[in-house]
Amino acid sequence: MLNRYPLWKYLLILVVLLAGLVYSLPNLFPEDPAVQISSERGDATIDARQLERIRTSLGEAGIDIQAVEEQPSSALIRLSDADDQLRARDRISDMLGDEYVVALNLAESTPAWLQSLSASPMTLGLDLRGGVHFLLEVDMDAALEQRLEVNASAMREQLRGERIRYRDTEIEERTISMAFANAEDRDEARSLIAREFPDFDYQSVGEDRGARLVMTMSDQAVQELQDYAINQNLTTLRNRVNELGVAEPLVQRQGPDRIVVELPGVQDTTEAKRIVGATANLEFRLEARPDTPENETETIPFRNSPNRTAELMRDVIITGDSVSNANHSFDENGRPQVNIDLDGTGGTLMNRATRTNIGRNMAVVYIEHKTRDTTVTVDGEEVVEREPYTERGIISLATIQSALGNSFRITGLDSPTEAAELALLLRSGSLAAPIYFVQERTIGPSLGAENIERGVMSVQIGLLLVVLFMLVRYKVFGVFANIALALNVTLLIAAMSLLGATLTLPGIAGIVLTLGMAVDANVLIFERIREELRTGLSVQQAISAGYERAFTSIIDANITTLLVAVILFSIGTGPVKGFAVTLSLGILTSLFTALMVTRAMVNLTYGGKPVKKLWI
Question: What family is this protein classified in (predicted)?
Fold first, then answer.
């Protein structure tokens, strides 16, 4: 029989529409502006008396509190108005002091029954939700110095393996200089090193006891190193941002030595800055023997006890670059530790070093690159300059009991928070060069609220115009199309929520475009039905022919648009991807509502009934 669906098709459409309704509902419950209070080191607690003082203080300031949620080492204060966030944060910070971190936050308000179904609202981009924008600068001089240190260490190990005596090593700018007892040793060292290190220009200076080998890194090698430093830092920062769980972050290069990082929805700027900008790395070194020459050792203090020091070898066994995986846990005494897995090369080097040094101490050195501001006078004016410096501290010094392999653990950490952060940094990869914050901007949710309001208004206006046109042009069939259009928007929002897609301002533009395109298929079908009626077909035959003969045109038109959207997503960045995602999902939901949902409504209304005239 014409224009009748089997029962299973009606049930399928009903299930899809119900699922779309359920998973779009969380978007009716916007996130609450909130203030997050947490311990600076993760070991302090917030008691009821402190929370009561905070309540009283905020009440005196006229700041309305929705709710206070207590957690073991933190508290979340939900506010009624986003404009009160900054005032609340500043007031609480003054009360609690430096022991606690007080940060802005956005707290979910989705009902528990929806959360139990894994339903959550769409994530919003930086232009809608607010967040942080960082401009970072890569220290290329430090990258060059680090590479020269590594090369110098490898050269010394090579010379010791061939029993070629050298006196000392100096590193300055792009040059490594090594002193030898005589010219013969120097010439032998030059021929040996030049084969393994072709990126240097070699020069022999002096004779006899003043014989030196000067090695200068070539311009091409310096350029390749700088490109590597930027690309490696980009990869590491992307890994760190992924660990933070930020949706649709932007991490991209800007110019020769700068990186832009945008984190939508991040309100805890302290946490984000600490993770993104952390330059911590590890070095594993052997403790020096009493008879080791002074120029081959380095005195390094312990991180937790600066007055205690140890003499370590300058040569590094491995660094954090060799770590393939790391996670934090607790040892048998309940103290925090980090479990480390090494890659193949790192495991080989560690096994070789520990196998021949059983009974000797090995240190784990924690390295951080930092900056401090110093005030200098230039032409009679005080100018603040950024001075980079490096802190090295021993976090563990233990005796090698047996040869180590690809897996071992690090103890001696202060707190579980420190262990978790160290594991995160090692897992995401170390930076090839230190980075410094040149610019930091926090984009408040108020700007996002204005953008959302304008975007929603544009959707409403577009929807209203389409609805009016369809009603005037197609009468009853226009009602079917408008119902399908509303269901289309519902399904689109549900799909974006389920997939975790991020809505940006260009994404809203994609939704507006989808509204216009969503009725295209219905227009083609309805016009085709009109044509069939004019040729003299019966009502039932005209409806059936209209849907069947318009099908090919609808599929062709939407497939080509979908291909363009896929291309935009594959080659575009942030905003372009947001537009492509909403456009792609909108095309798929439009096809479903136009070809199945409207057909189901038409079938239920006219199918199998003696109809003499259509209101179309």
Answer: Belongs to the SecD/SecF family. SecD subfamily.
